[in-house]
Amino acid sequence: MEKVVILMSILLGYLGYSQSKLDSYIEAGLKNNEIIKQNNFDINKSMYALKEAQSLFYPTVSLNTNYTVADGGRTIDIPIGDLLNPVYSSLNQITNSNAFPSLQNQSVLINPDNFYDAKIHTTMPLLNFEIIYNKRIKSQQNSLQKIELEIYKRELVKEIKIAYYKYLQSVEGVKIYEEALKLVKENQRVNQSLFKNDKINRTAVLRSDNEVIRIQANLETAKQTSKNAQAYFNFLINQKLDATIETDQIETLPEDWLADNTQNREEIKKLNQVKELNETVGKLTKSYWFPTLSGFADFGFQDFDFEVNKDSRYYFAGLGLQWNIFSGNKNKFKLKQVEQDTQKISSQIDNVKQQLLLQYQISQNNLKSALEQFNANKNQKVAAKKYNEDITKLYKEGQAIYIELLDSQNQWVNTQLSTNIALYNSWIAYAELERANATFTLNQ
């Protein structure tokens, strides 16, 4: 481990960059990414769903009115004449008068005619476990969506960093080929001059011409690769594909970057949240066996012919209790399904923990390997540069043949390219390790 830390320090000293520009690009990418915006809309929607579930605990108040006109249909017969007429007849005889008239039997329509009813109707749940667990489920679903968004953000940060390092790698590759082109063109000029003075044959001139053509082709390929890397990086941060990418120095990495942090990864948090959500669903299923209690109250007016007086006022209130007794074992079997899901999720958690730990260890090993390769290439680059300088001097003095010069120059160019590739591959490997370890700090 100490060796890896030393190699990382060498890498940092070689780079001398700061990540301030990269951090600003990451911030812009997280802010402008359309998928993140869409996920934020879903989170806001689930938050409103949670508030909707909370509102079920409050009373519901409504204004209800109706007016009825009726004729025909069922009636209620009231034999008032049969009951009172004999009494009234006796009273008339006693009083020798007609003070008590005869009455007719009445037939009243069951459906009220010319009748209105206007009331304020209020209902409120007093005991309802379904509402309680439904609110808890909405809250857990909201938390689950936030965790899923964090997972996507971490993946996006990793992709932005890798794209950034690949762009820097391509830019440096262009610079190496540009310098190589200057070198082979100088060789071309020297060889043409030597050929005119009959000091070398035409083969060396033709070979130098071919080297110029080869390096020019490689340079053009490197430029196109750099443009593609630039376009992909700008795509990730939702900018114009040809926007200029500014680079800055990379700041020192923390000393504890090798610490295992896989237990805190959002993937495990997500599965734990799913498990809690499933347990709440089980409690919701069990709530079928508990009674529900609600209250209601009506305050209003009702009368015929739109009359309003003290006798028209009324109130009506009460309680409602519902207790399910039997449903064909439907909820029993539903609860069995929930229990199976819980066991499945527990198994998934154990499996994912192992997968994440494997990913971390592989990323860690890849970073160690990349750093070792960079250190080896860096040493080879120093040696190749010295070798090329010596052969170039000997060639100009006529003490070396062109094949030796060409070999030394190719070694010099290739070691530069290999060192550049190994350099940024190390940073790409670090970005992979950072993702596997979930150590990048996401701004909430």
UniProtKB/TrEMBL annotation:
Compartments in which it is found: Cell outer membrane
SUPFAM superfamilies: Outer membrane efflux proteins (OEP) (SSF56954)
Coiled-coil features, chain-numbered ranges: 335-373
Keywords from the named record: Cell outer membrane, Coiled coil, Membrane, Transmembrane, Transmembrane beta strand, Transport
Main location: membrane
Stated family: Belongs to the outer membrane factor (OMF) (TC 1.B.17) family.
The name this protein goes by in its record: TolC family protein
